[in-house]
Amino acid sequence: MVTIVLQPEFIRGRASWPDPHRTHVDQEAPSGALLDAYSRAVIRATEAVSPSVVHIEVSARCSSRKSASGAGSGFFFTPDGLILTNSHVVHGAHRIHVTDSEGARFRADLVGDDPHTDLAVIRVEGGNRPASPFAEHAPRAGQLVIAIGNPYGFQCSVTAGVVSALGRSLRAKSGRLIDNVIQTDAALNPGNSGGPLVNSAAEVVGVNTAMIRPAQGICFAIGADTARHVATYLIRDGAIHRGYLGFAGQNIDLHRRTIRYHDLAIESGILIVSLEPASPVTAADLREGDIVIGADGNPARSLDDLHRALTEWDGESGIELDVVRRTQRIRRLVVPQLLKG
Question: H-helix or E-strand containing 323?
Fold first, then answer.
């Protein structure tokens, strides 16, 4: 036999028996309030940024006289019709058309394209466009971010997530590394490329560019600082001007005796395999078999480090290369040639 003892509260009517069909609002209020705050942040950012997001359609001529088509996303970042997107969306396009958030379709012109950072700027005629600003401060790991774009042609689709990691490197189709890439778990799909990644303040923290197809929740965006820097040069010059040295090199591991003899802090360098005639490196008396280990006081462990130095080159002064030649450690001042694109 089971004995049920009634508590005084129930006997005196101060409380009632729990209703199994009733939702316990008081217990769920904290999580409900948190969900509402999260939703409000996403909604506010989406409503502020969505008018600047566009759908981009491109067509390109093929060698067989047939045309190929593609699509992606972009966003107005200035009120006078300048749109930022990915290079791989518009590179080689014969025609570019843009559809804005209100469904109006425009012809667009290519302003500049940089495959090495996978960024491009296009322009449509007319002013007073709803532009989205770049964030002044870099995001932090764990921060809420929202991706807006046109995956598979579904216009102004919104996904939300967090910044999974910062400072990633992503290799562009050109073979160069893109630095300071943001990793996020905000879902991206084909067609999202070129769309904005924004924070809860409706500021653009990145330009969505890629995802790892077999993985779940591993997507990437080019950071706002890189996007702003590249866009400035594309608007001014139509391309990014980088330095050209004139040699073919390969990454190699340094011999232990070489590291100890020269007291090096690195374990790899760049072997000069061949030289272009009348190039900047031949003028600086570099030779085949030399090993480049530094550029302008920074370590050069690989060709990627050298590419970074050439990207940051001011276009006027020389670059001092630190070189190991057999048993000698020498320095040579090389004045690169300007290389467009």
Answer: strand 319-325
